[in-house]
């Protein structure tokens, strides 16, 4: 699901698995498509991420400080380690200090990575 740009929580994955697993311990492809359809109704990653960053944007300029973004990524939701945050900043071409345009950041992290 993550390779298709969905971000289910561990609890959601467990719920889907329990609901759709067959007697052989596998999920049929048709059931997987049902799961994707169901999950697409409840998730809008871009909207959720932008709302979270907008709440931290005290100056309403479309930016948050790099320090604040690092803090958010390491202390909320599925917390990232400092190494993971540093790698994410590097991959996204972000400076480790100053202001970060969060719309650009969200677009970058939601763009699927080529797997070739």
Automatic annotation (TrEMBL):
InterPro entries (UniProt xref): CALM/Myosin/TropC-like (IPR050230), EF-hand-dom_pair (IPR011992), EF_hand_dom (IPR002048)
Sorted UniProt keywords: Muscle protein, Repeat
Keyword Transferase applies: no
Name the UniProt record assigns to this protein: EF-hand domain-containing protein
Domain called EF-hand: residue spans: 44-79
Signal peptide coordinates: none
Molecular function terms from GO: calcium ion binding
Family matches, as CDD domains: EFh (cd00051)
Domain of life: Eukaryota
GO annotation, cellular component aspect: myosin II complex
């Amino acid at each position: 699901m993550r390779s298709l740009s969905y971000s289910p929580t561990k609890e959601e994955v467990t719920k889907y698995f329990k609901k759709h697993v067959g007697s052989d311990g596998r999920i049929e492809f048709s059931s997987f498509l049902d799961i994707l359809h169901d999950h697409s109704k409840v998730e809008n990653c871009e909207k959720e991420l932008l709302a979270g960053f907008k709440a931290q944007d005290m100056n309403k300029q479309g930016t948050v400080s790099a320090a604040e973004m690092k803090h958010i990524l390491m202390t909320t939701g599925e917390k990232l380690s400092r190494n993971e945050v540093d790698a994410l900043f590097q991959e996204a071409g972000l400076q480790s200090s100053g202001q970060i345009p969060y719309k650009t950041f969200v677009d970058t992290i939601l763009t699927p990575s080529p797997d070739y």
